[in-house]
UniProtKB/TrEMBL annotation:
SUPFAM superfamilies attached to this UniProt entry: Multidrug efflux transporter AcrB transmembrane domain
Protein name: RND superfamily putative drug exporter
Keyword Transmembrane among record annotations: yes
Pfam family membership, one: MMPL
Stored PANTHER family: MEMBRANE PROTEIN MJ1562-RELATED (PTHR33406), MEMBRANE PROTEIN YDGH-RELATED (PTHR33406:SF6)
Species per Swiss-Prot/TrEMBL record: Micromonospora parathelypteridis
UniProt subcellular location: Cell membrane
Entry similarity comment: Belongs to the resistance-nodulation-cell division (RND) (TC 2.A.6) family. MmpL subfamily.
Domain SSD: 552-680
Segments passing through the bilayer: 165-188, 195-217, 229-251, 272-293, 305-326, 365-385, 525-542, 549-570, 582-602, 614-639, 645-665
GO cellular component: plasma membrane
Topology with respect to the bilayer: Multi-pass membrane protein
Source superkingdom: Bacteria
Keywords for this protein: Cell membrane, Membrane, Transmembrane, Transmembrane helix
Length: 705
């Protein structure tokens, strides 16, 4: 062993050992992220939102803030005396559950005599333990019996079902993601050994990201919710495997040119690292643009996902190269690369033929693919962004959904989740009259000074705090429905017009309304910023202005086509009623940032080859040597994001589907055909105004002459 090779091996061993120690310390935190996750929608509202101000005022009117669980009993043939006794007995046992605030109001009968409802106030301070409280309530009811159906619904029931869904992230989602990546790596490499290296590096990336996210969330520096946690899992494994594929492909290529693995790795690292760093940096900066969001939930996702990508970059540029160096040529067994000075395009026969096809039909290819993508964008008219109702949140039936449907059938649908109106004592009566006159409002009553154990006494005095009174407006529509949101907006307009009322309207429906409004504002602010940031990074990387503009245009076209296709699938295949208001922004950030990744992989190599061969020859060479690895990377990323479908939550299924489809469109159509054909057709001018555009223009003019 030569001196340089021996030192390289010792360095690689030291790097691997250091990372294994880090992995041993960080690994356990990967399974503890749920401990520091928060899934309360109200906690993620902007501080200046009206619903947030209302929630702050609520704290002045109650000793402890609550989130209600609504236990509903239904017998279509009519509630019996035995049913009433059972509901009363259950209510007495509910009062003994830790976390339930007493006294409980008595069971409320429906006007049609077919249902009973028990409102169980759960201490909001229970946080994630609300799920445990609701489970105990469900255990007490014992479920359906003798024709009487029993469900636990309301905001607490919904939150408990969401917590149960997100609990699957630490187990099933991670397992499915690992299995998906493993299968694809085995297919791509056809090696019983090589798959170990990228999978081990991706696992190390996830452990590293987890420890930082855990510590920051535990210290309340960042907010972590179940959605961000799920995205972190698939993003780290997907992007990490992508970067690993790029590094391994370049290393294999250099092993054909160098005798010693150390020399091959050094050259491969110099060639692949700039593209990987630029790619990861683009994703990180794009994700950090979410910090401009007015929604705390979006601001939470940005740094969580950015930490994941940063950790992945560090691991893939240090730990993975050290593993590959120790593995040497035998890691590629049974197809070990030999030092034969072969042209790298020789190993990529299929993609060499694709490059030849692009060269012969460049203009028809980019025109036809652009037209196909433009046609898909027509599906955007079916997108229907809205706030998903409770019954639309899950891909399967849940107790809270069933219970809400019972409430809707037999009670004013907003029972248990009223809109809260805070106004001055002097204008309270007028505000109540105005609110009662709003279509969609079933009842308006003040919060009284006595204990809230049932309907208020006639002429009971309202509770007054600092000159303010709290009114509760029960809506006729379910609190998470479009009808309730329309009513809430009209209610705000009406009470805001009462002179001197200084009215503030909050509640569950108000939270949805303010969240939807903030999401629309975020799209208008963040999307242009992300595009500008990506344009600057591409301009610096490619040292050109025309190429970045064209690349961003192709990514935007791909994004719009993906959303158009998704809109058709969601509505006509999956049967979803629409998409959540936050979906377009999340889809944009991930599809554009990750789509630019593949642009960077391709065009950085095209530029490298253009310096040596000329632009058009460089385009063909770059496509031939990167086509396979980019397609493999796209399939890995698409497959990992599609793993989100194991979580029975519509918003994550929609996001996973959109990213998976978008990445496949990007890799198979945009990066394999549209971009190379467009660059080939334009020729050296693609690098305008950089020096390469003039040098290559002169070279190709001489060659043509």
């Amino acid at each position: 062993m030569s001196g340089r090779g021996g030192r390289a091996t010792l360095i690689a061993v030291a790097v691997v050992l250091v990372w294994l120690v880090i992995g041993g310390v960080a690994g356990p935190y990967a399974g503890r992220l749920s401990e520091v996750a928060t899934n309360d929608n109200a906690a993620f509202l902007p501080t200046d939102a009206e619903a947030t101000r209302a929630q702050d005022l609520t704290g002045d009117f109650v000793d402890r803030q609550t989130i209600p669980a609504l236990v509903v009993y239904e017998r279509p043939s009519g509630i019996t005396d035995a049913d009433r006794q059972r509901a009363s007995a259950d209510a007495a046992r509910f009062a003994q559950v830790p976390g339930v605030l007493t006294p409980l109001p008595p069971p409320i009968p429906s006007q049609d005599g077919q249902a009973l409802q028990v409102v169980v106030p759960v201490d909001d301070a229970e946080g994630e333990e609300i799920g445990s409280v609701v489970k105990q309530l469900r255990d007490i009811t014992g479920g359906d019996r003798d024709g009487l159906t029993v469900d636990v619904a309301g905001p607490a029931g919904l939150l408990a079902d969401l917590i149960e869904v997100f609990a699957a992230i630490d187990g099933p989602l991670l397992l499915v993601t690992l299995v998906v990546v493993l299968i694809i790596l085995l297919v791509v490499y056809r090696s019983p050994v090589l798959w170990i290296f990228p999978l081990l590096a991706a696992g190390m990336s996830y452990a590293l990201a987890s420890v930082f996210v855990y510590l920051l969330a535990d210290a309340d520096v960042i907010k972590l919710n179940g959605q961000a946690q799920g995205i972190l899992t698939v993003l780290v494994f997907g992007a990490g495997t992508d970067y690993a594929l790029l590094m391994i492909a370049r290393y294999r290529e250099e092993l054909h040119r160098h005798d010693r693995p150390w020399d091959a790795m050094r050259t491969a690292w110099k060639g692949a690292a700039p593209a990987i760093i630029a790619s990861g940096g683009t994703v990180i900066v794009s994700l950090l643009c979410l910090l401009l969001s007015s929604l705390n939930s979006n601001r939470a996702l940005g740094p969580v996902a950015a930490i994941g990508i940063a950790g992945t970059l560090l691991v893939m540029l240090t730990f993975l190269p050290a593993l590959l160096l120790l593995g040497g040529r035998w890691a590629f067994w049974p197809r070990r690369p030999r030092e034969d000075q072969a042209d790298p395009r020789v190993e990529h026969g299929i993609w060499s033929r694709v490059a030849g096809f692009v060269a012969r039909h460049a203009r028809p290819i980019w025109l036809s693919t652009a037209v196909v993508l433009a046609i898909l964008t027509l599906g955007l008219t079916q997108l229907g962004a809205t706030t998903l109702g409770q019954s639309d949140l899950f891909t399967q039936r849940t107790d809270s959904v069933d219970g809400q449907e019972v409430i809707t059938r037999h009670f004013p649908a907003g029972t248990g989740s009223p809109a809260t109106i805070f106004t001055t004592e002097q204008t309270a009566r007028q505000v109540a009259q105005v609110a009662q006159g709003v279509p969609g409002v079933a009842e308006v009553r003040p919060l009284t000074a006595g204990p809230q154990t049932g309907p208020p006494e006639e002429n009971a005095a309202p509770k007054v705090v600092d000159g303010r009174v709290q009114l509760e407006a029960t809506l006729t529509d379910p609190p998470d429905s479009d009808g309730a949101e329309r009513t809430l907006r009209e209610l705000r307009v009406a009470v805001h017009q009462v002179p001197g009322a200084d009215a503030v309207v909050g509640g569950f429906t108000a939270i949805n309304v303010d969240t939807s409004d903030a999401a629309k504002r975020d799209q208008n602010v963040i999307i242009p910023v992300v595009l500008v940031v990506i344009a600057v990074i591409l301009a610096l990387l490619l040292r050109a202005l025309l190429a970045p503009v064209l690349l961003i245009a192709t990514v935007l076209l791909s994004f719009a086509a993906t959303l158009g296709l998704c809109a058709l699938l969601f509505r006509h295949v999956f049967g979803f009623p629409g998409v959540d208001s936050a979906f377009p922004l999340f889809a944009f950030v991930f599809l554009v940032a990750l789509g630019i990744d593949y642009n960077i992989f391709l065009m950085s190599r095209v530029r490298e080859e253009s310096v040596k061969r000329g632009t058009r020859a460089g385009v063909l060479a770059g496509l031939a040597v990167t086509g396979g690895v980019i397609t493999s990377a796209g399939i890995v990323l698409a497959a990992t994001f599609s793993a989100l479908a194991v979580l029975p939550l519509v918003v994550l299924v929609e996001l996973g589907t959109a990213v998976a489809l978008g990445v496949l469109i990007d890799t198979i159509i945009v990066r394999s055909l549209l971009v190379p054909a467009l660059a080939y057709d334009i020729g050296p001018k693609i690098w305008w105004p950089g020096r390469l555009s003039r040098a290559n223009g002169e070279r190709e003019a001489r060659d043509a002459g």
